[in-house]
């Protein structure tokens, strides 16, 4: 896929919808002349065979169909292409540029396109639809995937995430931001999350999701719990196990990708966060923060991928020069000035009632106790202002002053008679 934000993407399409969209797209491209009827027939047969053999999902079929149709921008009709045509197509894909002369495709997109081209033509050769020697196609090597797609500097810091939480103006936005970051979920997993997948305990909340990998994941959340609880209390519909947790603000319908991106960027701008924001950046940032904070790799893999055997861990291990310096100093026995760990996203547990509150909470949501020094100062100022208000009101009201004087006299007399 070329650079840019996906627009209008839904998290809620059924398999039947994706299958229908695949066939409609093939028919539309045929009608427009972008592919030939023979191309369309080959593509449909290819999809049917790999689905029967590998059981690929409807979403995957749709992606494959789009990619293979897209190859026709660089190839003649599929069945008539020569080995030279394939080589030329690969070179054109690698060298394609946009209007600004920047590469049209990201490195991983180029790798995907070349892989699809290679697999499709190996299938055509196997089935007698292409006369290209198999050895020629096997010589085509896709570029390696770029595992590190973000630099450490592009990731969000805990302070920036806190700033966005403070800048969010609705319970839903705060809950979505906190949950997306702390869970490390893909936005599609939260877009389809239902209340039946959410379980509250007295100190945390757990999500059970399977998402992209179709592997169940157990994800415990502490920071996000109070924000999710607040959103649940304000939820505009009847809560059932099948109801989607996150809804749009105006129509109260399930989220759309483009709407989430737009809202996050508005909140980021309000918070003074200058970085390019997209929902997946929160996953990148969270995994890197967990690594930096020393969480065991096996726990991160189970929480984020549902498997100890994932090969994706290194893609998200964004370490800074500071991390490297710290590790080297520790290895060589050198004592350095330790950098204070950020507490911007630490949950606040109330010392009185022990409820867990969010990092942006200043007063306990359960019992109202001040949770930090600023809150204590604010509360003390409010009490002093209240006292001053009533003292002035009493002193300027003779009747009220007389009543207060009598009340105090009665209390004094009653106290004296009790002692005797």
From TrEMBL:
It holds the Pfam family Phage_integrase. The keyword Amino-acid biosynthesis does not apply. The keyword Protease does not apply. Residues 151-329 form the Tyr recombinase domain. Keywords: DNA recombination. One of its GO terms (molecular function) is DNA binding. GO terms for biological process: DNA integration; DNA recombination. This is Tyrosine-type recombinase/integrase. It comes from Methanofollis tationis.
């Amino acid at each position: 896929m070329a650079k840019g934000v996906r627009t209008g993407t839904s998290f809620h399409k059924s398999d039947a919808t994706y299958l229908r969209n695949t066939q409609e797209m093939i028919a539309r491209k045929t009608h427009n002349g972008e592919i030939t009827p023979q191309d369309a027939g080959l593509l449909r047969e290819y999809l049917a065979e790999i689905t029967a053999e590998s059981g690929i999902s409807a979403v995957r079929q749709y992606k494959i169909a789009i990619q293979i149709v897209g190859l026709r921008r660089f190839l003649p009709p599929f069945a008539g292409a020569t080995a030279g045509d394939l080589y030329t197509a690969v070179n054109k894909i690698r060298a394609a540029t946009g209007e600004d002369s920047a590469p049209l495709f990201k490195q991983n997109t180029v790798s995907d396109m070349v892989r699809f081209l290679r697999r499709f033509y190996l299938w055509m050769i196997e089935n007698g639809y292409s006369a290209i020697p198999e050895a020629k196609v096997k010589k085509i090597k896709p570029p390696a995937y770029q595992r590190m797609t973000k630099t450490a500097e592009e990731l969000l810091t805990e302070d920036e995430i806190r700033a966005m939480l403070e800048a969010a103006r609705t319970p839903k936005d705060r809950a979505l931001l906190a949950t997306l970051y702390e869970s490390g979920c893909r936005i599609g997993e939260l877009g389809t999350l239902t209340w039946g997948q959410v379980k509250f305990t007295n100190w945390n909340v757990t999500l059970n999701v399977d998402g992209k990998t179709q592997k169940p994941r157990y994800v415990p959340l502490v920071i996000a719990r109070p924000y999710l609880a607040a959103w649940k209390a304000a939820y505009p519909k009847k809560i059932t196990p099948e109801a989607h947790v996150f809804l749009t603000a105006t129509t109260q319908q399930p989220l759309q990708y483009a709407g989430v991106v737009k809202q996050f960027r508005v909140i980021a701008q309000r918070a003074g966060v200058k970085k390019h924001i997209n929902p997946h950046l929160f996953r990148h940032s969270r995994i890197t923060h967990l690594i930096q904070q020393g969480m065991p790799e096996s726990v991160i893999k189970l929480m984020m991928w549902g498997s100890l055997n994932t090969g994706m861990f290194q893609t998200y291990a964004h370490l800074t020069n500071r991390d490297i310096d710290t590790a080297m100093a520790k290895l060589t026995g050198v004592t350095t000035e330790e950098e204070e760990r950020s507490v911007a996203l630490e949950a606040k547990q109330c010392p009185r009632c022990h409820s867990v509150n969010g990092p942006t909470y200043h007063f306990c949501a359960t019992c109202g106790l001040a949770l930090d020094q600023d809150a204590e100062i604010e509360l003390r100022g409010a009490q002093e202002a209240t006292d001053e208000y009533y003292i002035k009101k009493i002193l300027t009201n003779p009747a009220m002053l007389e009543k207060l004087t009598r009340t105090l006299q009665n209390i004094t007399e009653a106290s004296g008679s009790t002692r005797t």
